[in-house]
Amino acid sequence: MAKDGSKPVILWFRNDLRLDDNQALNAAHLSGRPVIPLFIREAETGAAPLGAAQAWWLHHSLEALDGSLLKRGGRLLLASGQALEVLCTIIRDSGAEAVFWNRRYDPPGIAVDIRIKHELEKQAIDARSFGGQLLHEPSRLMTGSGAPYRVYTPFWRALEKTGEPKPPLDAPSKLRLASKLPASESLASWKLLPTKPDWARDFVDLWTPGEEGAQERLGSFVEEALDGYKENRDYPAKQATSMLSPHLALGEISPARIWDATRGLSRRVPASDIVHFRKEIAWREFSYHLLFHFPRLASANWNDRFDGFEWRDDGEGFEAWRRGMTGYPIVDAGMRQLWRHGWMHNRVRMIAASFLIKDLMIDWRRGEAWFRDTLVDADPANNAASWQWVAGSGADASPFFRIFNPVLQGEKFDPAGDYVRAHVPELRGLAAKYIHRPFEAPKSVLDEAGIILGQTYPEPIVDHARARDRALAAYKATRDAA
Ligand code: FAD
Protein backbone atom coordinates (compact mmCIF):
# COMPACT_ATOMS: atom_id res chain seq x y z
CA MET A 1 0.00 0.00 0.00
CA ALA A 2 1.41 3.45 -0.92
CA LYS A 3 2.19 5.55 2.10
CA ASP A 4 1.16 9.16 2.56
CA GLY A 5 4.35 11.23 3.05
CA SER A 6 2.53 13.80 5.14
CA LYS A 7 1.68 11.22 7.81
CA PRO A 8 4.08 11.33 10.75
CA VAL A 9 6.74 8.82 11.68
CA ILE A 10 7.14 8.01 15.36
CA LEU A 11 10.77 8.03 16.42
CA TRP A 12 10.85 5.81 19.48
CA PHE A 13 13.81 6.70 21.72
CA ARG A 14 14.93 4.07 24.21
CA ASN A 15 18.54 3.67 25.33
CA ASP A 16 19.73 5.95 22.50
CA LEU A 17 19.05 9.39 23.93
CA ARG A 18 20.93 11.40 21.32
CA LEU A 19 20.48 13.13 18.00
CA ASP A 20 24.06 12.52 16.86
CA ASP A 21 24.84 9.28 14.99
CA ASN A 22 21.30 8.06 15.43
CA GLN A 23 20.36 5.84 12.50
CA ALA A 24 16.65 5.68 13.28
CA LEU A 25 16.51 9.46 13.56
CA ASN A 26 18.44 9.84 10.33
CA ALA A 27 16.07 7.52 8.50
CA ALA A 28 13.04 9.34 9.93
CA HIS A 29 14.54 12.65 8.80
CA LEU A 30 15.28 11.36 5.31
CA SER A 31 11.75 10.00 4.98
CA GLY A 32 10.60 13.63 4.79
CA ARG A 33 7.69 12.87 7.11
CA PRO A 34 6.97 14.94 10.21
CA VAL A 35 8.64 13.27 13.18
CA ILE A 36 7.07 12.52 16.55
CA PRO A 37 9.92 11.95 19.04
CA LEU A 38 8.69 9.64 21.76
CA PHE A 39 10.07 8.11 24.95
CA ILE A 40 8.03 5.45 26.71
CA ARG A 41 8.45 4.56 30.32
CA GLU A 42 7.79 0.91 29.72
CA ALA A 43 5.79 -1.15 32.14
CA GLU A 44 7.00 -4.66 32.92
CA THR A 45 9.16 -5.71 30.03
CA GLY A 46 10.74 -8.46 32.08
CA ALA A 47 13.97 -6.44 32.25
CA ALA A 48 15.50 -5.71 35.63
CA PRO A 49 13.96 -2.52 37.03
CA LEU A 50 15.79 0.72 36.40
CA GLY A 51 18.24 1.33 39.25
CA ALA A 52 17.77 4.41 41.40
CA ALA A 53 21.05 6.07 40.31
CA GLN A 54 20.32 5.53 36.65
CA ALA A 55 16.79 6.86 37.16
CA TRP A 56 18.42 10.12 38.29
CA TRP A 57 20.50 10.12 35.12
CA LEU A 58 17.51 9.29 32.93
CA HIS A 59 15.58 12.27 34.28
CA HIS A 60 18.33 14.69 33.32
CA SER A 61 19.04 12.96 30.04
CA LEU A 62 15.40 13.23 28.95
CA GLU A 63 15.45 16.91 29.90
CA ALA A 64 18.57 17.39 27.78
CA LEU A 65 17.07 15.55 24.82
CA ASP A 66 13.92 17.61 25.07
CA GLY A 67 16.13 20.74 25.08
CA SER A 68 17.94 19.62 21.89
CA LEU A 69 14.62 18.94 20.18
CA LEU A 70 13.27 22.28 21.33
CA LYS A 71 16.17 24.01 19.56
CA ARG A 72 14.93 22.31 16.41
CA GLY A 73 11.36 23.35 17.00
CA GLY A 74 10.00 20.16 18.58
CA ARG A 75 9.32 18.49 21.89
CA LEU A 76 9.86 15.04 23.31
CA LEU A 77 6.61 13.24 23.92
CA LEU A 78 6.58 11.25 27.17
CA ALA A 79 4.21 8.37 27.77
CA SER A 80 4.11 5.38 30.05
CA GLY A 81 2.60 1.91 29.86
CA GLN A 82 3.00 -1.20 27.73
CA ALA A 83 4.97 -0.04 24.69
CA LEU A 84 2.66 -1.64 22.13
CA GLU A 85 -0.45 -0.08 23.67
CA VAL A 86 1.21 3.33 23.88
CA LEU A 87 2.36 3.15 20.26
CA CYS A 88 -1.07 2.08 19.04
CA THR A 89 -2.73 4.96 20.88
CA ILE A 90 -0.33 7.51 19.42
CA ILE A 91 -0.70 6.01 15.95
CA ARG A 92 -4.46 6.32 16.26
CA ASP A 93 -4.34 9.90 17.58
CA SER A 94 -1.70 11.23 15.19
CA GLY A 95 -2.35 9.23 12.03
CA ALA A 96 1.30 8.09 12.04
CA GLU A 97 2.09 5.40 9.51
CA ALA A 98 5.61 4.48 10.57
CA VAL A 99 7.58 3.73 13.74
CA PHE A 100 11.38 3.74 13.71
CA TRP A 101 13.76 2.76 16.51
CA ASN A 102 17.32 1.65 17.20
CA ARG A 103 17.77 -1.93 18.29
CA ARG A 104 18.46 -2.84 21.90
CA TYR A 105 20.19 -6.06 22.85
CA ASP A 106 18.97 -7.06 26.30
CA PRO A 107 16.92 -10.25 25.96
CA PRO A 108 13.61 -8.92 27.42
CA GLY A 109 13.94 -5.81 25.23
CA ILE A 110 14.50 -7.94 22.14
CA ALA A 111 11.41 -10.03 22.93
CA VAL A 112 9.25 -6.91 23.31
CA ASP A 113 10.56 -5.44 20.07
CA ILE A 114 9.95 -8.58 18.02
CA ARG A 115 6.36 -8.68 19.20
CA ILE A 116 5.79 -5.00 18.52
CA LYS A 117 7.23 -5.22 15.04
CA HIS A 118 5.00 -8.13 14.27
CA GLU A 119 1.86 -6.43 15.61
CA LEU A 120 2.56 -3.12 13.86
CA GLU A 121 3.23 -4.83 10.57
CA LYS A 122 -0.13 -6.55 10.89
CA GLN A 123 -1.65 -3.05 11.01
CA ALA A 124 0.32 -2.05 7.88
CA ILE A 125 2.53 0.28 9.92
CA ASP A 126 6.06 0.63 8.60
CA ALA A 127 8.01 -0.64 11.66
CA ARG A 128 11.75 -0.42 11.16
CA SER A 129 14.70 -1.02 13.46
CA PHE A 130 18.30 0.13 13.04
CA GLY A 131 21.76 -0.61 14.44
CA GLY A 132 24.27 1.74 15.97
CA GLN A 133 24.18 0.97 19.67
CA LEU A 134 27.09 -1.39 19.07
CA LEU A 135 29.87 -1.34 16.50
CA HIS A 136 28.69 -4.69 15.17
CA GLU A 137 25.51 -6.68 15.47
CA PRO A 138 26.16 -9.42 18.06
CA SER A 139 24.86 -12.02 15.64
CA ARG A 140 27.34 -10.98 12.96
CA LEU A 141 30.70 -11.76 14.51
CA MET A 142 30.88 -15.53 14.85
CA THR A 143 33.70 -18.05 14.97
CA GLY A 144 34.71 -20.00 11.86
CA SER A 145 32.36 -22.79 12.90
CA GLY A 146 29.46 -20.37 13.25
CA ALA A 147 29.40 -20.43 17.05
CA PRO A 148 29.45 -17.39 19.34
CA TYR A 149 32.82 -16.31 20.73
CA ARG A 150 33.60 -17.42 24.26
CA VAL A 151 37.05 -15.91 24.53
CA TYR A 152 37.80 -12.22 24.24
CA THR A 153 41.09 -12.23 22.28
CA PRO A 154 39.78 -14.06 19.19
CA PHE A 155 36.65 -11.89 19.41
CA TRP A 156 38.84 -8.78 19.33
CA ARG A 157 40.83 -10.17 16.39
CA ALA A 158 37.62 -10.83 14.50
CA LEU A 159 36.42 -7.33 15.27
CA GLU A 160 39.69 -5.89 14.01
CA LYS A 161 39.47 -7.98 10.86
CA THR A 162 36.06 -6.60 9.95
CA GLY A 163 37.78 -3.27 9.40
CA GLU A 164 36.95 0.19 10.65
CA PRO A 165 33.36 0.76 11.79
CA LYS A 166 31.24 2.96 9.55
CA PRO A 167 31.84 6.67 10.14
CA PRO A 168 29.21 8.19 12.47
CA LEU A 169 26.34 10.27 11.14
CA ASP A 170 26.06 13.89 12.17
CA ALA A 171 22.82 15.03 13.78
CA PRO A 172 20.50 16.57 11.19
CA SER A 173 20.74 20.33 11.58
CA LYS A 174 17.02 20.71 10.94
CA LEU A 175 14.19 18.35 11.67
CA ARG A 176 10.68 18.38 10.37
CA LEU A 177 9.01 17.79 13.64
CA ALA A 178 5.31 17.09 13.89
CA SER A 179 3.63 20.32 14.97
CA LYS A 180 0.69 18.75 16.72
CA LEU A 181 1.72 16.21 19.29
CA PRO A 182 -0.62 14.17 21.43
CA ALA A 183 -0.53 15.29 25.10
CA SER A 184 2.67 14.39 26.92
CA GLU A 185 3.05 13.21 30.49
CA SER A 186 5.18 15.45 32.67
CA LEU A 187 8.68 14.26 33.51
CA ALA A 188 8.27 15.40 37.11
CA SER A 189 5.29 13.07 37.51
CA TRP A 190 7.61 10.12 36.87
CA LYS A 191 9.44 10.90 40.13
CA LEU A 192 12.80 9.69 38.91
CA LEU A 193 14.75 11.95 41.26
CA PRO A 194 15.39 11.11 44.91
CA THR A 195 13.93 13.59 47.36
CA LYS A 196 14.15 12.73 51.02
CA PRO A 197 17.04 12.21 51.39
CA ASP A 198 18.56 13.54 48.18
CA TRP A 199 21.39 11.02 48.08
CA ALA A 200 22.28 12.14 44.55
CA ARG A 201 23.22 15.69 45.56
CA ASP A 202 26.93 15.13 44.80
CA PHE A 203 26.25 13.62 41.37
CA VAL A 204 25.97 17.07 39.80
CA ASP A 205 29.57 17.91 40.77
CA LEU A 206 30.78 15.17 38.49
CA TRP A 207 28.25 14.56 35.76
CA THR A 208 26.47 16.36 32.96
CA PRO A 209 23.88 13.94 31.60
CA GLY A 210 22.84 14.40 28.00
CA GLU A 211 24.61 14.24 24.68
CA GLU A 212 26.31 17.58 25.02
CA GLY A 213 27.89 16.40 28.26
CA ALA A 214 28.92 13.18 26.52
CA GLN A 215 30.57 15.02 23.64
CA GLU A 216 32.42 17.30 26.02
CA ARG A 217 33.59 14.34 28.07
CA LEU A 218 34.84 12.60 24.93
CA GLY A 219 36.62 15.74 23.75
CA SER A 220 38.43 16.35 27.01
CA PHE A 221 39.40 12.71 27.38
CA VAL A 222 40.92 12.56 23.89
CA GLU A 223 42.67 15.87 24.49
CA GLU A 224 43.96 15.28 28.01
CA ALA A 225 44.02 11.61 28.99
CA LEU A 226 44.13 9.32 25.97
CA ASP A 227 47.88 9.85 25.81
CA GLY A 228 49.06 7.58 28.64
CA TYR A 229 45.72 5.75 28.97
CA LYS A 230 47.24 2.27 28.87
CA GLU A 231 49.52 2.95 31.82
CA ASN A 232 47.37 5.34 33.85
CA ARG A 233 43.97 3.69 33.57
CA ASP A 234 44.66 1.37 36.51
CA TYR A 235 45.29 4.14 39.04
CA PRO A 236 42.03 5.28 40.61
CA ALA A 237 43.40 8.54 42.00
CA LYS A 238 44.24 9.74 38.49
CA GLN A 239 41.62 11.15 36.17
CA ALA A 240 42.81 8.75 33.51
CA THR A 241 39.77 7.04 32.03
CA SER A 242 37.06 8.49 29.83
CA MET A 243 34.13 8.24 32.28
CA LEU A 244 31.93 7.80 29.24
CA SER A 245 30.21 4.71 30.65
CA PRO A 246 27.00 6.39 31.91
CA HIS A 247 26.66 8.25 28.62
CA LEU A 248 27.07 4.97 26.73
CA ALA A 249 24.63 3.16 29.00
CA LEU A 250 21.77 5.43 27.94
CA GLY A 251 23.07 5.90 24.44
CA GLU A 252 23.88 9.60 24.69
CA ILE A 253 26.89 8.84 22.55
CA SER A 254 27.48 6.00 20.11
CA PRO A 255 30.49 3.69 20.15
CA ALA A 256 31.10 4.61 16.50
CA ARG A 257 31.40 8.29 17.47
CA ILE A 258 33.90 7.37 20.20
CA TRP A 259 35.87 5.17 17.82
CA ASP A 260 35.90 7.93 15.26
CA ALA A 261 37.31 10.42 17.78
CA THR A 262 40.38 8.19 18.16
CA ARG A 263 41.14 8.23 14.44
CA GLY A 264 43.98 10.28 12.97
CA LEU A 265 45.69 10.91 16.30
CA SER A 266 48.78 8.78 15.76
CA ARG A 267 51.14 11.77 15.55
CA ARG A 268 50.14 12.98 18.97
CA VAL A 269 49.05 9.87 20.87
CA PRO A 270 50.98 6.56 21.00
CA ALA A 271 49.24 3.82 19.05
CA SER A 272 49.38 1.56 22.12
CA ASP A 273 47.11 3.96 24.03
CA ILE A 274 44.62 4.20 21.19
CA VAL A 275 44.50 0.44 20.73
CA HIS A 276 44.12 -0.17 24.45
CA PHE A 277 41.21 2.24 24.68
CA ARG A 278 39.55 0.67 21.65
CA LYS A 279 40.01 -2.71 23.26
CA GLU A 280 37.94 -1.52 26.22
CA ILE A 281 35.18 -0.43 23.86
CA ALA A 282 35.50 -3.94 22.43
CA TRP A 283 35.00 -5.43 25.92
CA ARG A 284 31.62 -3.73 25.87
CA GLU A 285 30.95 -5.34 22.49
CA PHE A 286 32.05 -8.71 23.87
CA SER A 287 29.76 -8.36 26.91
CA TYR A 288 26.81 -7.71 24.58
CA HIS A 289 27.86 -10.63 22.42
CA LEU A 290 27.74 -12.85 25.54
CA LEU A 291 24.40 -11.44 26.70
CA PHE A 292 22.88 -11.89 23.26
CA HIS A 293 23.95 -15.52 23.04
CA PHE A 294 23.45 -16.30 26.74
CA PRO A 295 20.33 -14.36 27.75
CA ARG A 296 20.53 -15.44 31.41
CA LEU A 297 23.91 -13.79 31.91
CA ALA A 298 22.69 -11.71 34.87
CA SER A 299 20.92 -14.53 36.65
CA ALA A 300 22.73 -17.80 35.96
CA ASN A 301 26.35 -18.92 36.03
CA TRP A 302 27.67 -18.94 32.50
CA ASN A 303 29.78 -21.90 33.59
CA ASP A 304 27.31 -24.20 35.34
CA ARG A 305 30.08 -25.86 37.30
CA PHE A 306 29.54 -22.95 39.73
CA ASP A 307 25.92 -23.94 40.34
CA GLY A 308 26.99 -26.09 43.27
CA PHE A 309 29.14 -23.40 44.91
CA GLU A 310 28.24 -22.95 48.58
CA TRP A 311 27.66 -19.21 48.89
CA ARG A 312 27.44 -17.84 52.43
CA ASP A 313 24.36 -16.07 53.67
CA ASP A 314 26.13 -13.24 55.49
CA GLY A 315 23.77 -10.32 56.00
CA GLU A 316 26.19 -8.37 58.20
CA GLY A 317 29.08 -8.84 55.79
CA PHE A 318 26.94 -7.68 52.88
CA GLU A 319 25.82 -4.63 54.82
CA ALA A 320 29.41 -3.72 55.74
CA TRP A 321 30.44 -4.09 52.09
CA ARG A 322 27.55 -1.98 50.81
CA ARG A 323 28.27 0.80 53.25
CA GLY A 324 32.03 0.80 52.75
CA MET A 325 32.75 -0.39 56.28
CA THR A 326 34.77 -3.57 55.72
CA GLY A 327 37.97 -2.29 57.34
CA TYR A 328 39.85 -2.66 54.05
CA PRO A 329 40.40 0.93 52.88
CA ILE A 330 40.53 0.37 49.12
CA VAL A 331 37.28 -1.62 49.20
CA ASP A 332 35.62 0.96 51.43
CA ALA A 333 36.82 3.86 49.28
CA GLY A 334 35.36 2.19 46.19
CA MET A 335 32.01 1.43 47.79
CA ARG A 336 31.74 4.98 49.08
CA GLN A 337 32.73 6.44 45.72
CA LEU A 338 29.92 4.35 44.26
CA TRP A 339 27.40 5.74 46.74
CA ARG A 340 28.59 9.31 46.43
CA HIS A 341 29.05 9.58 42.67
CA GLY A 342 27.16 6.60 41.24
CA TRP A 343 30.39 5.40 39.66
CA MET A 344 33.49 3.48 40.65
CA HIS A 345 36.86 3.16 39.01
CA ASN A 346 37.29 -0.11 37.08
CA ARG A 347 40.29 -1.38 39.08
CA VAL A 348 38.43 -0.79 42.32
CA ARG A 349 35.25 -2.43 40.95
CA MET A 350 37.36 -5.56 40.45
CA ILE A 351 38.81 -5.37 43.97
CA ALA A 352 35.45 -4.66 45.64
CA ALA A 353 33.72 -7.43 43.67
CA SER A 354 36.49 -9.90 44.46
CA PHE A 355 36.16 -9.02 48.14
CA LEU A 356 32.42 -9.71 48.14
CA ILE A 357 32.66 -12.93 46.18
CA LYS A 358 35.84 -14.43 47.56
CA ASP A 359 36.60 -12.91 50.97
CA LEU A 360 32.95 -12.90 52.03
CA MET A 361 31.80 -15.72 49.74
CA ILE A 362 28.57 -13.90 48.97
CA ASP A 363 26.82 -14.77 45.72
CA TRP A 364 27.96 -12.51 42.86
CA ARG A 365 24.30 -11.93 41.92
CA ARG A 366 23.79 -9.90 45.12
CA GLY A 367 26.70 -7.68 44.17
CA GLU A 368 25.44 -7.36 40.63
CA ALA A 369 22.05 -6.22 41.91
CA TRP A 370 23.59 -3.63 44.26
CA PHE A 371 25.75 -2.22 41.47
CA ARG A 372 22.71 -2.15 39.16
CA ASP A 373 20.84 -0.02 41.68
CA THR A 374 23.68 2.36 42.52
CA LEU A 375 25.69 2.80 39.30
CA VAL A 376 24.77 5.59 36.92
CA ASP A 377 26.36 3.45 34.21
CA ALA A 378 24.43 0.26 35.14
CA ASP A 379 24.46 -1.78 31.98
CA PRO A 380 22.76 -5.16 31.54
CA ALA A 381 25.66 -6.63 29.58
CA ASN A 382 28.73 -5.02 31.14
CA ASN A 383 27.57 -5.43 34.71
CA ALA A 384 26.58 -9.07 34.43
CA ALA A 385 29.60 -10.06 32.33
CA SER A 386 32.00 -8.24 34.66
CA TRP A 387 30.57 -9.80 37.83
CA GLN A 388 30.83 -13.23 36.27
CA TRP A 389 34.34 -12.40 35.11
CA VAL A 390 35.42 -11.66 38.68
CA ALA A 391 33.54 -14.68 40.07
CA GLY A 392 35.31 -17.00 37.66
CA SER A 393 31.96 -18.32 36.46
CA GLY A 394 31.92 -16.23 33.27
CA ALA A 395 33.21 -16.62 29.75
CA ASP A 396 36.96 -16.05 29.53
CA ALA A 397 36.83 -15.18 33.23
CA SER A 398 39.58 -14.56 35.73
CA PRO A 399 40.12 -17.97 37.41
CA PHE A 400 38.44 -18.27 40.81
CA PHE A 401 41.73 -19.07 42.51
CA ARG A 402 43.14 -15.66 41.56
CA ILE A 403 42.03 -13.82 44.67
CA PHE A 404 42.84 -10.15 45.03
CA ASN A 405 44.61 -9.18 48.22
CA PRO A 406 42.91 -5.84 49.01
CA VAL A 407 45.94 -4.50 50.88
CA LEU A 408 48.45 -5.29 48.13
CA GLN A 409 46.08 -4.10 45.42
CA GLY A 410 45.63 -0.84 47.30
CA GLU A 411 49.38 -0.40 47.74
CA LYS A 412 50.05 -1.15 44.09
CA PHE A 413 47.38 1.00 42.50
CA ASP A 414 46.93 3.74 45.08
CA PRO A 415 50.48 3.95 46.42
CA ALA A 416 50.18 7.37 48.04
CA GLY A 417 46.70 6.62 49.35
CA ASP A 418 45.14 9.63 47.63
CA TYR A 419 42.13 7.69 46.42
CA VAL A 420 41.44 6.32 49.88
CA ARG A 421 41.83 9.77 51.44
CA ALA A 422 39.39 11.24 48.91
CA HIS A 423 36.63 8.81 49.87
CA VAL A 424 37.35 7.68 53.43
CA PRO A 425 37.77 10.95 55.32
CA GLU A 426 38.34 9.27 58.69
CA LEU A 427 41.65 7.90 57.35
CA ARG A 428 42.81 11.20 55.90
CA GLY A 429 45.49 11.76 58.54
CA LEU A 430 47.16 8.37 58.04
CA ALA A 431 50.58 8.14 56.37
CA ALA A 432 50.94 6.26 53.08
CA LYS A 433 52.77 3.41 54.82
CA TYR A 434 49.63 2.42 56.74
CA ILE A 435 46.83 3.84 54.64
CA HIS A 436 45.97 0.43 53.19
CA ARG A 437 46.63 -1.48 56.41
CA PRO A 438 45.46 0.71 59.32
CA PHE A 439 45.00 -2.45 61.41
CA GLU A 440 48.80 -2.87 61.43
CA ALA A 441 49.60 0.72 62.39
CA PRO A 442 51.13 1.26 65.84
CA LYS A 443 48.83 2.89 68.35
CA SER A 444 50.91 6.09 68.34
CA VAL A 445 50.42 6.45 64.57
CA LEU A 446 46.69 5.88 64.86
CA ASP A 447 46.48 8.36 67.75
CA GLU A 448 48.27 10.98 65.74
CA ALA A 449 45.86 10.47 62.84
CA GLY A 450 42.88 10.63 65.19
CA ILE A 451 41.81 7.06 64.44
CA ILE A 452 40.33 4.64 66.94
CA LEU A 453 39.95 1.28 65.22
CA GLY A 454 36.58 -0.25 65.86
CA GLN A 455 35.18 3.22 66.61
CA THR A 456 36.12 5.82 64.03
CA TYR A 457 37.00 3.22 61.40
CA PRO A 458 36.21 -0.52 61.46
CA GLU A 459 38.58 -3.36 62.19
CA PRO A 460 38.75 -5.72 59.16
CA ILE A 461 35.54 -7.76 59.07
CA VAL A 462 37.49 -10.83 57.89
CA ASP A 463 41.11 -11.86 58.01
CA HIS A 464 42.06 -11.89 54.34
CA ALA A 465 44.50 -14.83 54.54
CA ARG A 466 41.94 -17.02 56.30
CA ALA A 467 39.11 -15.90 54.06
CA ARG A 468 41.25 -16.77 51.05
CA ASP A 469 41.85 -20.33 52.33
CA ARG A 470 38.13 -20.71 53.03
CA ALA A 471 37.22 -19.60 49.51
CA LEU A 472 39.78 -21.88 47.90
CA ALA A 473 38.51 -24.86 49.92
CA ALA A 474 34.93 -24.13 48.83
CA TYR A 475 36.06 -23.83 45.24
CA LYS A 476 37.94 -27.13 45.43
CA ALA A 477 34.86 -28.84 46.88
CA THR A 478 32.72 -27.52 44.00
CA ARG A 479 35.30 -28.60 41.44
CA ASP A 480 35.68 -32.08 42.94
CA ALA A 481 31.90 -32.54 43.03
CA ALA A 482 31.46 -31.52 39.39
P1 FAD B 1 37.16 3.61 30.08
O1 FAD B 1 38.36 2.95 30.63
O2 FAD B 1 37.29 4.99 29.62
O3 FAD B 1 36.60 2.67 28.93
C1 FAD B 1 35.78 3.17 27.87
C2 FAD B 1 34.52 2.35 27.76
O4 FAD B 1 34.85 0.99 27.48
C3 FAD B 1 33.69 2.29 29.03
O5 FAD B 1 32.87 3.42 29.17
C4 FAD B 1 32.90 1.00 28.82
O6 FAD B 1 31.80 1.20 27.97
C5 FAD B 1 33.91 0.12 28.10
N1 FAD B 1 34.60 -0.72 29.09
C6 FAD B 1 35.69 -0.42 29.82
N2 FAD B 1 36.04 -1.47 30.60
C7 FAD B 1 35.11 -2.42 30.38
C8 FAD B 1 34.91 -3.74 30.88
N3 FAD B 1 35.75 -4.29 31.77
N4 FAD B 1 33.85 -4.45 30.45
C9 FAD B 1 33.00 -3.93 29.52
N5 FAD B 1 33.15 -2.69 28.99
C10 FAD B 1 34.19 -1.95 29.42
N6 FAD B 1 30.68 -1.06 32.96
C11 FAD B 1 29.51 -0.49 32.61
O7 FAD B 1 29.47 0.26 31.63
N7 FAD B 1 28.37 -0.74 33.31
C12 FAD B 1 28.36 -1.58 34.40
O8 FAD B 1 27.28 -1.80 34.98
C13 FAD B 1 29.59 -2.16 34.80
N8 FAD B 1 29.66 -2.97 35.90
C14 FAD B 1 30.87 -3.50 36.27
C15 FAD B 1 30.92 -4.34 37.39
C16 FAD B 1 32.13 -4.90 37.80
C17 FAD B 1 32.18 -5.83 38.99
C18 FAD B 1 33.30 -4.61 37.08
C19 FAD B 1 34.62 -5.21 37.49
C20 FAD B 1 33.26 -3.80 35.96
C21 FAD B 1 32.05 -3.24 35.53
N9 FAD B 1 31.97 -2.42 34.39
C22 FAD B 1 30.76 -1.87 34.03
C23 FAD B 1 33.12 -2.26 33.49
C24 FAD B 1 34.03 -1.06 33.76
O9 FAD B 1 34.37 -1.01 35.12
C25 FAD B 1 33.41 0.27 33.36
O10 FAD B 1 32.91 0.20 32.04
C26 FAD B 1 34.43 1.41 33.43
O11 FAD B 1 34.97 1.50 34.71
C27 FAD B 1 33.76 2.70 33.05
O12 FAD B 1 34.62 3.77 33.18
P2 FAD B 1 35.14 4.57 31.92
O13 FAD B 1 34.00 4.93 31.05
O14 FAD B 1 35.99 5.66 32.44
O15 FAD B 1 36.02 3.47 31.20
Fold blueprint:
Blueprint: E1 9-13, H1 23-30, E2 35-42, H2 52-71, E3 77-81, H3 83-94, E4 98-102, H4 107-122, E5 126-130, H5 152-161, H6 203-206, H7 211-224, H8 229-232, H9 245-249, H10 255-261, H11 271-293, H12 315-323, H13 329-341, H14 346-359, H15 364-374, H16 380-391, H17 406-413, H18 418-423, H19 432-435, H20 443-449, H21 464-481
Parallel strand pairs: 1-2, 1-4, 2-3, 4-5
Helix pairs in contact: 5-11, 11-16, 13-14, 14-16, 15-16
The structure holds flavin-adenine dinucleotide.
Q: Count the strands? A: 5
What spatial form do the alpha-carbon principal axes imply?
globular
Listed once per kind, the bound small molecules are: flavin-adenine dinucleotide
Order of helices and strands: EHEHEHEHEHHHHHHHHHHHHHHHHH
As a percent range, the share of strand residues is 5-15%
Distance between the termini: 59 Å
CATH architecture grouping of the largest domain = Orthogonal Bundle
Helix content: 40-55%
Cα Rg: 24 Å
Number of helices: 21
CATH structural fold name of the largest domain: DNA Cyclobutane Dipyrimidine Photolyase, subunit A, domain 3
Task: Profile the largest sheet.
Answer: 5 strands, parallel
CATH uppermost class of the largest domain: Mainly Alpha
Regions with pLDDT < 50 over 5+ consecutive residues? none
The pLDDT mean sits at 95
CATH level-4 homologous superfamily of the largest domain: DNA Cyclobutane Dipyrimidine Photolyase, subunit A, domain 3
